[in-house]
Write a structure and sequence with these properties.
It is a single chain. Strands 13-10-14-15-9-16-17 form a 7-stranded mixed sheet, with helices on both faces. A 6-stranded antiparallel sheet has the order 3-2-1-6-5-4. The protein is of the alpha/beta class. It folds into 2 domains: 3-115, Beta-Lactamase; 125-293, Rossmann fold, CATH 3.40.50. It is 27% helix and 29% strand.
Amino acid sequence: MRQEILHIMPTRFRGMVKEGFKRQPDAEEIRIRVGQAPEILGRDKSVWLPEPVTAEDIEEMLTFISRYSIYAYEEEIRQGFLTIEGGSRIGFAGQVRLHGGTVSRMTNIRFLNIRIAREQKGCAGELMPWLFENGEFLNTLLISKPGAGKTTCLRDIVRLVSDGGAYGPGRKVCIIDERSEIAACHLGIPQNDVGKRTDVLDGCPKQEGMRMALRSMSPDVIAVDELGGGKDARAVEEILLCGCRLLGTIHGADMDQILRMAEVKEMYQKELFQRYILIEREPDGRRKFIVYNGECVRLC
């Protein structure tokens, strides 16, 4: 039972949540919706608690989440999410206020999504021999559909590259964690094990973060989640031209699909990546890795 999750639940729901976790031990999310019963989701089923959530219940949760100072977390709430102790991430939905065409704040929050943090150390171990050549880390792009585990694999690769092993000595890694999903920092402290030589720029936009890391932290490898768009491609090229290595992810179903994306096609034509790793989910939930070289020739 994750105590940090229990502690942010409305007091009257805590016993019900405990029972729900017993029925759903592999819970991945808890959905809180005003007027509806809380839903605890796993990979294959949902468990519904017996009573509906009120607006007062959600206000009580926000008090616990913010440690009795909701205004201190106004910026995170405006962005739609924050990370709590233990690494779990809470998404918010409610009434959005606009100023000058951009979101200025969120009020009347009535929907929460608690994504329960689960590290899977060792899940990328079988990939490591494919990501090094002559002891050097190869620029690598992880590809998968949403929910197939590319961020989880990226996190484990970061840890393994940072700590070092049979494939090579440990390297300085800097994570650009725009949405706090990789290191899951809470008050600046990573809640996930990302390795002993890893630094984190938390909540920083990808393009700016990559350049900041290069200037200030002298990393051997920069890790970034969910690349996409021409600006990302240009920032990647800039980083690689400076001699730093890159580990990134992108949404995609297969190689044919991502090579139709203009920004990926550009990176492919410029030979920026030496490894493309396609991650698929087997029917039993296990991950399957398909490794391609920089010319998109399948290696395994």
